[in-house]
Protein: Glycoside hydrolase family 88 protein
Amino acid sequence: MNRSTIFKTLTCFAFAAFSQAQDIEPKEVLEVMEEVADWQIENYEGLYSGHSKPHHPLDWTNGALYVGMVKWAAMAEDDKYYEWLKGIGEKHDWQLHRRKYHADDHTVGQLYVELYRKYNDPDMIEPTKEQFNYIMYHPAQTSLQWKTPYHQSRWNWCDALFMSPPVWAKLYNITGEKKYLDFMMDEFKATTDFLFDKMENLYYRDESYMGKLDNGTKIFWSRGNGWVFAGLVNVMNELDPNSKEYKYFLKIYKKMAAKLLKIQTPAGHWAMSLLGQDYYPTPETSGTSFYIYGLAWGINQGILDKATYAPAVKKGWNALVGHVTDDGMLGYVQPIGAAPGKAWPNKTEVYGTGAFLSAGSEVYKLYGGK
Structure:
């Protein structure tokens, strides 16, 4: 082992020990969530990870932001965050994004349902219901194989399981119409049967990564599995815990949670290639935020053993907070991609903020917040 490797190893363990020692106070969770939310709103159209123009307000990137931001809005002391979110929906007539079948363009529907729950305005969800009804009665017949014709008309990449299924589950919950649940279950099961590795209890990003190795390890993208893990939670939140559908998702969730506990890095984050932390030492906060969100939720629900999982949540949350700048920017968010890559302390993305706010909403509860 050379000097550089020894230094990196010692630094990693020192940071891990420091993180473990830091107590988490509910008030401090609220404070950092507010800082991150406010910074993101002020820099909503900022270009922080190399793209040439701001994301469209209905794009999946912002849709993922809204999923976390609406959780923060429910915790904040005034309605200014709700008003900001409502203004986005009003400006775009409560429409989903441009592609009818593509899961990414459904993501903003999660926000619309949550705003409907607050304001009880049917106009907020009518376009989503109409579009999803069309999809149900004209279901895509495309293959789940990657790069086949019109392949992304179905959920053949793991990110999709965060983007679209929770919208279907929310519509089922608020309307009581089981057709939404049945459609979602059929498609979710098809995707899981195709992309879930039963040996590793993780999801391939898509078919193109199956059978490939990165430094001798299978390629399981951290944020990709984070999308899935958070998506499972967002779906289960809409279902009866005694239902067979809930139990289906719970089984996957528990398998993933156990795996994630084993592969968390000593520093508290998860490596961008989940099984290759020796080769991807750089922190990455979007995937890690989704894992902290999901694990803290499981403890709060009494699903995961607190003594077993709480240390991982504590270590992970402290690591995340350590990558928030003094002015509230969440750093080390991997730019848009589909595979393990790089992240930098001065680069961020709106979906990273959304993931962080989701994580904070459950960490706050876990440590006694009301």
Remarks:
- The chain has 14 helices and four strands.
- The first strand starts at residue 196 and ends at 197.
- Residues 1-17 have pLDDT under 50 and may be disordered.
- The chain has one domain: 35-366.
